[in-house]
Amino acid sequence: MERKRVLLCLAHMSGNEMRYIQEAFDTNWVVPLGPNVNGFEDDLKRFVTSSSSSNKDVVSNRNEEYPQTILPHENNPESLWRDPIKGLEDKHVVALCSGTAAVHLALIALGVEAGDEVICQSFTFCASSHPVTYQGAKPVFVDSEKETWNMDPVLLEEAIKDRIAKTGKKPKAIIVVYLYGMPAKIKEILAIADKYDIPVVEDAAEGLGSRYDGQVCGTFGEYGVLSFNGNKMITTSGGGALICPNEAARNDVMFYATQAREGYPYYQHEKIGYNYRMSNVCAGIGRGQMTVLDEHIAHHRHIAHLYEEAFKKIEGIDFHANPSSEYDSNYWLNTITIDPSIKVRGQENAYKTTVKGAVGGAAGVIHAVDSAHTDCEPNTNVEAMRVFLDKANIESRPLWKPMHKQPCYKDCPAYLNGVSESLFSKGMCLPSGPLVTDDDVRYIVETIQAAIE
Ligand SMILES: *Cc1c(COP(=O)(O)O)cnc(C)c1O
User: Fold this and answer.
1) What is the pTM of this model?
2) Which residues have C-beta within 8 Å of that of residue 9, sequence separation ≥ 6?
3) Residue 71 phi/psi, 5° resolution?
4) Is position 404 within any domain?
5) pLDDT confidence of 52, banded at 50, 70, 90?
6) Share of the chain above pLDDT 90, in %
7) What's the rounded Cα separation, in Å, for the pair 80 and 48?
8) How many domains does the chain have?
9) CA distance 270 to 260
């Protein structure tokens, strides 16, 4: 009998979503505002400002039928996460239609304009940097350090100094990313940002619930970005949110998210606005998802622990784990690197065919390509592993290709140390979502072992 395909990461419903959606219909709030949007924002605000103790005791409810037995909190989320960390009480959360919109609005709120430069982590998904270009500004890419795979604080300072020397002005903002959920060296990055007085935007789209020193990622900088796309930690079908430093900033963001309307009895526009607010129906899904968020994070960490232990026994495969105890990744996606000396079955045929569907599945239209080759690509043993796993009904994916190697950014300045390019050449993402069982992990690890010659 053929195994059911193990997918990379798909969010999983709690069973409570319909209750909130039904309420939206019953009360005629099928619009981009309403009780679910407010309720979801309240839940998110309590969650992101909470001290770590509140979700430490939730463990993934392990057994082979985990996805069927996933249990939402016995408590209503309204009663959860009631202990905000001191200093975070002023934070506000605005629910939006996507994480990309959240990045864009953070840049607008920080006054990023045409001709400005914005520093951005190169090793990321394109949605971190694309909104910089929406503003007519230019991304300046900074490479990663080896421990967390996120922005290298040393290179960051070099980049800032060099941009000031070359352009005579400071970069307008710094976008740091929590790639695959792993916390960045945020304290060191903030220290440098403070020294030069440049605001930090944290792209925590992949890092919902990850913590550094007990504090939720996305609450350290000026603004924090969350995503609720279908493959993220939780989903609203599509959606995002922006964590704002205070009520004034929240009002500013809300203004731009709702077409920048002035207070006249008729439409009067003095600023260019956007239609970026989340709908009350999507927010209903979000409220239902909040009832399983702690359990989902616990499950991702549980799966990570199984991988970490298993890969200790396989030479040449390294699991990307928290570098030390300050770091507490949500392990949104579990990632490994494969040593270039490892021989994988089918390696001689790697890249002989081009990809027919979108890698990742989500894209509506992708451009067909004549050759699978570019000047920067995963090693043949990584591609062979991907194909081997695919044939065994296991979905995997290369790590994200660094932005400084993307043709659309070929003219942007980049400050490099080779780390992200090296990781891209040897890394891959493995199935990680709430639908992955202990037995799936065993099967995946066995298949990887079998692929090695
Ligand atoms: C998913 C993602 C985003 C964008 O979120 P959407 O909700 O898909 O627009 C931004 N940054 C990173 C790093 C992401 O992975």
Assistant:
1) 0.94
2) 231, 232, 332, 333, 431, 432, 433
3) -110, 120
4) yes
5) low
6) 78
7) 12
8) 2
9) 8
**Ligand 1 center from residue 227 Cα (angstroms):** 6
Considering the domain architecture, whether residues 369 and 401 belong to the same structural domain is answered as: yes
251 shares its domain with 298: no
Let me know whether 228 and 261 are in one domain. yes
**Domain stop point among 289, 305, 340:** 289
* CA dist., res. 149 & res. 183, Å (int): 9
249 and 324 both lie in a single domain:
no
What whole-number distance in Å separates Cα of residue 97 and Cα of residue 210?
Answer: 22
C-alpha distance across the termini of the chain, in Å? 26
382 forms beta bridges with none
Ligand 1 pocket, CB under 6 A: 98-100, 124-125, 127-128, 177, 203, 205-206, 227, 229, 240
Q: What angle do CA 36, 38, 41 make, to 5 degrees?
A: 105
User: Contact 337/212 with Cβ under 8 angstroms?
Assistant: no
Task: Tell which atom from ligand 1 comes closest to the C-alpha of 101.
Answer: 9
Residue 232 appears among annotated catalytic residues: yes
Is the residue at 182 inside a domain? yes
C-alpha distances in Å from residue 192, one per residue of 74, 159, 327, 412, 413:
43, 11, 20, 22, 19
273 and 201 within one domain: yes
Residue type, 24: A
Predicted confidence (pLDDT) per residue in 254-278, tens digit: 999 999 999 999 999 999 999 999 9
The identity of residue 405, as a single letter, is K
CA dist 443 and 314 (Å) reads: 14
Looking at the structure, tell me whether residues 314 and 269 fall in a common domain.
no
* Cα angle: 356, vertex 360, 365; to 5 degrees: 55
Residues 98 and 30 in one domain: yes
Expressed as residue numbers, the domain containing 181 is 14-52+75-289
Q: At what angle do helices 99-109 and 247-257 cross, to 10 degrees?
A: 120
| pLDDT at 8 exceeding the cut of 70 | yes
Distance 398 CA to ligand 1 centre (A): 17
Radius of gyration of the chain from its Cα atoms, rounded to whole angstroms: 22
Domain-terminating residue out of 232, 266, 289: 289
**Within 10 Å of residue 337's Cβ, how many Cβ atoms?**
20
